[in-house]
């Protein structure tokens, strides 16, 4: 069964571990080999991954959500820190900070830098991000086809009141608006400055990445991971042509609530939802996504137990949503499949 997942962030990567377990793969292993031909099996699972978090730092292209998938799905992610590599060291980052180099609030681990060097070298040689991601996957064997939502650069920027604003003596002027790169808002300010709006810079000129439209057209089931609806799923839906492809897809589309009792498990989905005036609840997110029968995204929506959620045009079911381990997450996927029938 071919499953295509819209995914971003750390939650999305953890969800993909469960999707792999659900289709019978070792969650931390590769796609295995075809029992007949003995060749590497083509993964049954494809993830369309947000690359709006990407940032160019020290001349390197960093793709946090794609790297979360690569590292998590091959078992080398640091699940305590929540991002980056296990057994990481920070020698280069410390040296960069000692030079006063840019963005000391965004630390690149030494092992992680190797990924960015290889990726940047290939991008500079003209390879699209989708080809670069496939090349990195050859080493990591994530067991899932990882597709950037777009091969063009899209950057999420966050409009806030300028945090560095110093009113002049006697001046009563308020702080002007500034656009921060998402990563500065997310890591330097911990999403602590109210976001006035999110801008997906470059989205208008972008197109779906290689393989994305096909992954939606050929899926037997499309899942929306319990990722941040605004800054992980939002940028994916902002790529021209993607919403239309989702509406036209033959497969059912089932989302998983990223909130339990109105709280995100990690990250700052609450701050993001507040910024777009969406209630921080499963109902709020479900209605924000909307029913596909009315031009929205969902046919079904899986919410945590005990949540009273009604969304016109969307079938809702309850299930335990704590992704404690791949098996627990696989049970969530089974519940999504049930909903899709
Ligand atoms: N998150 C932090 O809170 N602080 C960091 O210094 C940081 C560095 C970093 C480097 C590479 C990378 O792939 C991710 C990194 N993250 C860091 C996490 C990142 O902000 C998030 O993973 C996503 O962008 C949010 O989904």
What would your notes on this structure say?
With 341 residues, this protein is of the alpha/beta class. The chain has one domain (3-152, 203-340). Helices cover 35% and strands 17% of the residues. The chain has helices at residues 9-22, 64-73, 91-98, 110-124, 129-140, 182-188, 212-217, 229-238, 242-248, 269-275, 282-289, 326-340, and strands at residues 3-7, 45-49, 55-57, 60-62, 145-148, 155-161, 177-181, 197-201, 221-224, 252-256, 259-260, 263-264, 300-303, 315-318. The strands form four sheets. Strands 5-2-1-9-10-13-14 form a seven-stranded parallel beta sheet. The protein has a three-stranded antiparallel beta sheet with strand order 7-6-8. It has a two-stranded antiparallel ribbon with strand order 3-4. Strand 11 and strand 12 form a beta hairpin. The radius of gyration is 20 Å and the shape is globular. The relative contact order is 0.15. The model has no long low-confidence stretch (mean pLDDT 96). The structure holds ligand FO1. Residues 9-10, 53, 62, 64-65, 67-68, 83-84, 106-108, 112, 183, 186-187 line the site of ligand FO1.
């Amino acid at each position: 069964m071919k499953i295509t997942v819209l995914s971003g962030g750390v939650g999305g990567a953890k969800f993909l571990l469960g999707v792999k377990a659900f289709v019978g793969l070792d969650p931390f292993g590769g796609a295995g080999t075809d029992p007949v031909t003995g060749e590497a099996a083509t993964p049954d699972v494809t993830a369309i991954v947000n690359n709006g978090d990407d940032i160019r730092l020290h001349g390197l292209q960093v793709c946090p959500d794609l790297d979360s998938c690569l590292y998590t799905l091959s078992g080398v992610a640091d699940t305590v820190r929540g991002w980056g590599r296990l057994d990481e060291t920070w020698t280069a980052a410390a040296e960069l900070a000692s030079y006063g180099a840019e963005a000391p609030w965004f630390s690149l681990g030494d092992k992680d830098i190797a990924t960015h060097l290889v990726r940047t070298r290939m991008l500079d040689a003209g390879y699209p991000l989708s080809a670069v991601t496939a090349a990195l996957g050859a080493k990591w064997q994530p067991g899932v086809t990882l597709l950037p939502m777009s091969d063009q650069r899209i950057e999420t920027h966050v409009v806030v009141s300028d945090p560095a604003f110093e009113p002049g003596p006697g001046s009563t002027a308020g702080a002007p608006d500034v656009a921060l790169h998402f990563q500065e808002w997310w890591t330097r300010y911990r999403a602590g400055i109210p976001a006035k709006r999110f801008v997906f810079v470059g989205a208008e000129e972008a197109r779906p990445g290689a393989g994305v439209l096909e992954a939606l057209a050929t899926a037997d089931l499309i899942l929306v991971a319990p990722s941040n609806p605004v800054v992980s799923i939002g940028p994916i839906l902002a790529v021209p042509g993607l919403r239309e492809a989702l509406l036209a897809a033959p497969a059912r589309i089932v989302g998983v609530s990223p909130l339990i009792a109105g709280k995100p498990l990690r990250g700052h989905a609450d701050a993001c939802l507040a910024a777009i005036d969406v209630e921080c609840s499963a109902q709020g997110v479900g209605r924000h996504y909307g029913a596909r029968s009315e031009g929205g995204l969902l046919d079904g929506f899986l919410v945590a137990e005990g949540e009273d959620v009604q969304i016109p045009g969307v079938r809702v079911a309850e299930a335990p949503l704590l992704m404690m381990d791949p098996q627990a997450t696989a049970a969530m996927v089974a519940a999504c499949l049930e909903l899709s029938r």
